[in-house]
């Protein structure tokens, strides 16, 4: 088949209806989705409606570009059936959906999208009309080529999946302002929380450039039992900075030391029975200048102070930002 | 009646139970970024899904039980259970159906059904008869939107019983049934069954 005849076969795509559907698909996928101008449910279905209309038409045109086919309706029926079946499988079969997502890009596994399937009936009506009134032989080859390429690109280029936050999970939280440890300040936060326990980080930052060595011990106290924390690691920020250059948090606390304590407990059982409150008992023995009340004259001598705090801890569902996983 | 209306109103919804909600962590392993004040997102334990699916099946068929063929309307309720390796994310799939439908990727279940209205033509009298059909109980195995079931049917009109098998894919279903002493029949048609699911973490 000559190029000229092949392009003439694609001339159907230059008609207003497929052009409008293609434009709608492109604008919806790449502008409207995620813009907030229209509800997500509307933009989600709009692409399906437009795509299900234009895809069978494009498929018929592509086949006609390659193989001369008679305008007897058989090709149109086959294209409609293929598109409808493919769409139904993509929206309902996890296996097909997963495979298509790998080779084609993001698609949503959403059976409610099947409500858009009647859109192929519009394509059926339109194609039926075109079969009865074949294309104008004088139509522009350039226009046909442009419409064919444009339609295929728009159909193939799926919209990028908007990032969404992961599901909420319960985490322990400790309510604590910066703690005065004498020679510096300490900050406490829950780093990990899950079925088998909790992990807490304590950051001790010396005042100015004076040394401040801290020994950290903690326990998590429930009404019926207390769990002693196990010190897993203590690392100066300098050591961490070697692997995390550019970390703003680390740079701000370049002379701090990070202590990680693990609490092994059946956290799931406590969650299930509604044990959502505890007390986080923290003891920090700090040795360094300023640990004692500063003397009036001369350099501050090194001294040891031990301070303890009882901080309320709660276990509740927590939201995480996008890309936390 | 109130309960039936309430159940119908809940169709297409899913409900979260908080049981087993904490994620999976190794507390003895320090966080990946020790200096980060952000909490580390735990690993996903996956979830349990208990689903109550109810709806109607409309179709027709034939066999030796009703020699002239028939059209029937069946009511069905399926209770099924399955697990998902990944916890569903409500924010990732906003559906048209209120609060969205969540379906286990694989499940086992039990179905109770009643071919409540059966229209058949009496070839001798040339009239359409309306009769209640058989009741049945089936064990079901499903893969998301497809599955099959096998069980036992009972015709309250004649007292006959017998085995039946049933398969479905999306909105299509097919069923074959034998009633001892009466004969066999094959039915096919469309089904509209909407799930209500309860989910909780593993």
**Roughly how many Å is the radius of gyration of chain A?**
33 Å
Structural class of chain B: mainly beta
Strand content of chain A: 25-35%
Helix content of chain A: 25-40%
When the domains of chain B are counted, the total is 1
| Most extensive interface between two protein chains, with residue counts | A-B, 61 and 42 residues
Oligomer: heterodimer
Mean pLDDT reading of chain B: 88
Q: Give Rg of chain B in angstroms.
A: 22 Å
- Helix fraction of chain B by DSSP (H/I, runs of at least 4): under 10%
- Beta content of chain B: over 45%
- The H/E string of chain A reads HHHHHHHEEEEEEEHHEHEE
Overall pLDDT of chain A: 83
The low-confidence parts of chain A are: 292-299
Sheet with the most strands: spatial strand order of chain B: 2-3-4-6-7-8-9-10
The count of domains of chain A is: 2
Give a quick account of the main beta sheet of chain B: strands, pairing sense, barrel closure. 8 strands, antiparallel, barrel
Major beta-sheet overview of chain A: 5 strands, antiparallel
Keywords:
heterodimer, A: 325 residues, alpha+beta, Immunoglobulin-like, 2 domains, five-stranded antiparallel sheet, 27% strand, B: 202 residues, mainly beta, 10 strands, 4% helix
Describe the structure.
Chain A is an alpha+beta fold. Chain A has two domains: 3-156, no CATH class; 169-318, Immunoglobulin-like (Sandwich), CATH 2.60.40. Chain A has ten helices and ten strands. In chain A, the strands form two sheets. Chain A has a five-stranded antiparallel beta sheet, with no helix packed on it. In chain A, strands 2-3-4-8-7 form a five-stranded antiparallel beta sheet. In chain A, helix 1 (3-9) runs antiparallel to helix 3 (40-66), helix 2 packs across helix 3 and helix 4 (74-92) crosses helix 5. The longest helix of chain A is centred in the first third of the chain and has 27 residues, at 40-66. Mean pLDDT of chain A is 83; it is low at 292-299. Chain B has one domain. In chain B, strand 8 and strand 9 (172-179) form a beta hairpin. Chain B is elongated, with a radius of gyration of 22 Å. Chain B starts with a helix and ends with a strand. Chain B has one helix at 2-10; strands at residues 14-16, 47-63, 70-84, 106-122, 127-131, 135-143, 146-154, 161-169, 172-179, 183-201. Chain B is mostly beta strands. Chain B is 4% helix and 55% strand.
